């Protein structure tokens, strides 16, 4: 956001990707995601994704100090509600085995719930892309909905790749399976397009609006993908099934 604001003030307009500050931000974001990537190999998606709350509250404070934004009462209330909800999500997240083999990932990929879910996601994404490209609709919800829809395959692929690498390091080689490389390509591609649409949203709207909305959409998309693809609530207790969506 800082990079976009600085470029807007310059007489000669340059593309954002030629800004050293913008690349610095993307690099820091990438380093943070390395930690996320590692976590997905050891914990359920439904536990890791909601903990992105740290980035929401952190970004809110950063925008106050560096972008000179005003912290409103509603922001403080929203942050408090977010932390409360995260506590419930983390407390009632399912406790399932996290060591996923390449064969398990292959079976999940061809399961009918995931295929139906994928088709619905593709249809919704194409509709949003049509409005974005043809009708020039660049509303924050449209942009961040596309980011969230791309986040679903990203999270699925990240968990698969991270788990297979963790197993390989332990001596159970998984890197010889083609599904490992398929998921790696899916992860990289979906990440790249996420950055494109997220960057557009940050350019057009305030960080105090983009970050929390993106967090809610991303977390919801990630949790749904974890429930459908990895069946993380398959053997969960009834109390957990009720309290988790409440959180």
Automatic annotation (TrEMBL):
Protein name: NPAL2 protein
Subcellular location: Membrane
Swiss-Prot/TrEMBL keywords: Membrane, Transmembrane, Transmembrane helix
Main location: membrane
Protein's organism: Regulus satrapa
Pfam families linked to this entry: Mg_trans_NIPA
GO CC, one annotated term: membrane
GO function term, MF aspect, one: magnesium ion transmembrane transporter activity
TM spans (from-to): 21-42, 48-67, 76-94, 114-132, 139-158, 178-198, 210-230
Family, per entry: Belongs to the NIPA family.
Membrane topology: Multi-pass membrane protein
């Amino acid at each position: 956001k800082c990079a976009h604001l600085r470029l807007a003030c310059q007489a000669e307009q340059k593309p954002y990707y030629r800004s050293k500050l913008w690349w610095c931000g993307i690099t820091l974001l990438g380093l943070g995601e390395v930690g996320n990537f590692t976590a997905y190999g050891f914990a359920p998606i439904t536990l890791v994704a909601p903990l992105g709350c740290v980035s929401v509250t952190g970004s809110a404070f950063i925008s106050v100090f560096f972008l000179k934004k005003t912290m409103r009462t509603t922001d403080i209330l929203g942050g408090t509600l977010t932390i409360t909800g995260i506590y419930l999500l983390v407390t009632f997240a399912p406790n399932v085995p996290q060591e996923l083999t390449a064969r398990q990932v292959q079976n999940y990929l061809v399961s009918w719930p995931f295929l139906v879910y994928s088709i619905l996601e593709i249809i919704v994404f194409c509709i949003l892309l049509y409005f974005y490209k043809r009708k020039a609709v660049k509303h924050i919800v449209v942009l961040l909905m596309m980011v969230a829809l791309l986040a679903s395959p990203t999270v699925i692929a990240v968990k698969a790749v991270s788990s297979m690498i963790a197993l390989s390091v332990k001596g159970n080689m998984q890197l010889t399976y083609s599904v490992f490389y398929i998921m790696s390509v899916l992860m990289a591609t979906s990440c790249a397009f996420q950055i494109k649409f997220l960057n557009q949203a940050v350019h057009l709207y305030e960080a105090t609006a983009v970050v929390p909305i993106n967090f809610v959409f991303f977390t919801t998309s990630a949790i749904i993908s974890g429930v459908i693809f990895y069946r993380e609530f398959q053997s969960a207790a009834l109390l957990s099934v009720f309290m988790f969506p409440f959180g």
